[in-house]
């Protein structure tokens, strides 16, 4: 994944602080392969996943605020962000432009993905989409 991503961009700070470089083990191989291809071959621009103001765009643990909020409300928190999803902002293009370009070059992807629609960021995951379609769209 280097030189495109550092591990602390892809996992929450809780996990990175505890496990350091061992935290790679929490990230699904299909996710990492797709992320690399989207970054290097499809969009060819930097992708901002976690940064100083966003820390839950990659792998989220039970200590992160989104899962904790769901637990407090007695809601189920089932998410692909347990190693099979990332949210990112592509540098120099909108999320919609990025989704369009990913769709145009979907044959470069090694597996089927899901893309969330209607967001100002790009969410993609490698959950089984239940179809043979390379890309399945959904609304969160």
Question: Which descriptors would you attach to this protein?
Answer:
single chain, 140 residues, alpha+beta, five-stranded mixed β-sheet, 5 helices
Helices and strands, with pairings:
Layout: H1 7-10, H2 13-19, H3 29-43, E1 47-48, H4 65-72, E2 85-90, H5 95-104, E3 113-117, E4 122-125, E5 135-139
Parallel strand pairs: 3-5
Antiparallel strand pairs: 1-2, 2-4, 3-4
Distance between the termini: 28 Å
Number of strands: 5
- Number of H/I helices: 5
Helix share, percent: 25-40%
Which structural class do you get from the secondary structure elements? alpha+beta
Tell me the fraction of residues in β-strands, as a range: 15-25%
Structure, described:
- The chain has a 5-stranded mixed beta sheet with strand order 1-2-4-3-5, with helices on one face.
- β3 and β4 form a beta hairpin.
- It is built from 5 helices and 5 strands; from the N terminus they run αααβαβαβββ.
- It is 31% helix and 16% strand.
- The mean pLDDT is 96.
- It is of the alpha+beta class and 140 residues long.
- The chain is globular.
């Amino acid at each position: 994944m280097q030189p495109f991503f550092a591990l602390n961009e892809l996992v929450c700070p809780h996990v990175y602080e505890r496990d350091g470089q061992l935290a790679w083990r929490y990230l699904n191989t299909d996710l990492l392969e797709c992320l690399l291809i989207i970054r290097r071959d499809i969009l060819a621009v930097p992708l901002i996943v976690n940064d100083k103001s966003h820390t839950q765009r990659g792998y989220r643990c039970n200590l992160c605020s989104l899962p904790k909020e769901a637990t407090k409300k007695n809601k189920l928190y089932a998410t692909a962000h347990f190693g099979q999803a990332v949210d990112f902002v592509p540098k120099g293009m909108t999320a919609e432009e990025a989704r369009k370009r990913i769709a145009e070059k979907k044959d470069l992807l090694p597996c089927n993905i899901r893309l969330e629609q209607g967001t100002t960021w790009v969410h993609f995951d490698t959950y089984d989409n239940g179809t043979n379609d390379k890309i399945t769209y959904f609304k969160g």
